[in-house]
Specification:
This protein is α+β, with helices and mostly antiparallel strands and 166 residues long. It has one domain (25-161). It is built from four helices and six strands, in the order αβαβββαββα. The protein has helices at 3-19, 46-57, 90-108, 146-161, and strands spanning 27-35, 65-67, 74-82, 85-87, 117-124, 130-138. Strands 1, 2, 3, 4, 5 and 6 form a six-stranded antiparallel beta sheet that branches.
């Protein structure tokens, strides 16, 4: 993995952590919705971003940080452990599902390019560690349900938060 990119990612995560109050045991993670090749940003996907902007306007403030990148949007979120286990907030799941749907809607209305999306979970570990996992690949013709996205992301988050074996 590119060391410069990792340092950029660490800086982004540190800024996010410094900007939000954190509870004991909360862990900051990144959910990246990346196009597998090409671009997924406002210039090439204006119709999708209209839907994404609408979803952002109705999302609760402070639940996450939304970052725009040429390769696709990224959500920086805190994951907290509860008595029921580890899971993402419903608002985060709803927004990820809305972004995936926005991409499909945008493509149907003329956005380009149409390469598959990848959902990626990332975090920085203590010290110099970095963890990343591509958890779902979605083509432009896939009909992905919010429940499937929620189940996939929550399972991946539990794995990501599990301590590494030495």
């Amino acid at each position: 993995m590119d060391r410069t990119w990792q340092e950029t990612f660490r800086g982004r995560m540190r800024r996010f952590q410094a900007s939000r109050p954190v509870s004991e045991g909360d862990v900051a993670v990144s959910i990246k919705i990346r196009v597998s090749s090409g671009c997924f940003h406002r210039e090439h996907s204006p119709r999708a971003y209209k839907f994404i902007d609408d979803a952002l306007r109705t999302s609760p403030d402070g639940a996450f940080s939304f970052e725009e990148h040429e390769s696709g949007p990224e959500l920086l979120v805190y994951i907290g452990a509860t008595a029921a286990g580890v899971s993402l907030a419903a608002s985060v799941i709803n927004l990820v599902a809305a972004i995936v749907k926005a991409r499909s809607e945008g493509l149907r209305k003329g956005d380009m390019p149409s390469e598959p999306l990848e959902l990626i979970i990332r975090r920085i570990d203590e010290g110099d560690g970095f963890r990343e996992e591509t958890v779902l690949r979605i083509t432009s013709t896939d009909r992905v349900q919010k429940k499937h996205i929620a189940d996939t992301l929550n399972k991946a988050v539990r794995e990501l938060l599990r301590p590494r074996k030495q």
